[in-house]
Amino acid sequence: MKKKIIITGGAGYIGSHCVLSLVKNDYVPIILDNFSNSCPSIIKNLESIINKKIIFYKLDIKNTKKLKLIFKRHKCQAVIHCAGYKSVKESNRIPIAYLENNIQSTLSLLECMKEHKIYELIFSSSATVYNQDQKLPWKETGQIGKTTNPYGTSKYIIERILIDIGKSDPKWNFKIARYFNPIGNHPSGLIRDNSKGIPNNLMPYIVKVAQKKLPYLNVYGKNYSTRDGTCIRDFIHVTDLAEGHIAMLKKKNHKKRLEIYNFGTGKGSTVLEVIKAFEKETGIHIPFRFAKRRKGDVPISLSSSKKAFKKLFWKPKLNLNQAIIDIKATLNL
Q: 151 an active-site residue?
């Protein structure tokens, strides 16, 4: 019998790509999503790609009563927890909402899992938990907690919650995935980073400018201590990231109740380099203007993913150019 995996935020950008990887690897995904930052059409698009029905519930997982009914109905092996607010910029504007939503939804989820004796959780964390004033690239053993925005703070607090729970009860099996900067999309184009409003992430922002849905791209900051003055990020293809979740599912924690893995390429690109790469691949000029630095942005974020290479046998297969090729092909640019 195929193993069922509950995936919160499964209609979102990363969650939807994880759904495809789960199906490809013979798991049965059960999607929970309230569409706070995604579209209901994603469910039909996923079904079109895999050519079968998907088990789906429209649900805010803070609703513990309804969540318990779903756990009772579906005996699953594990949970992949992708749900949560995710904008660094927005989190600075509404910090209470970010802390309340991201932390409370996780506590609700953990309560339901414990009641139904499901003890395996993969948590979608972020590179924003790392202290920026330490040697690059950042390793899983690096210093964390000096977060620069409420979004990162919410991820850090949840990590601490999982660590404390793991210490208190040996039945739990936690894996924390620290994402760097996911880009790209499935080649079909039916699922992609399609956040509502003005995008907070670079690539979807560039795409909207290329489509003339926005007049220009704001580049936040031009005097960072980098090779061209703009921020450097470690961009990882979302398909590679999704496969990382499968590698974590297949890996059993034998000695530790909690494992942490970075998911990045170890290679950094500046904002201006990404713009130039997009223009070269697509032939489309991307007008931009420099704007003030965004509160909470760090100059450089770079991953050491050696632990994932060694313990999960996972390696990124797709690069920045391939991500742009996928975007170009699917959006008819």
A: yes
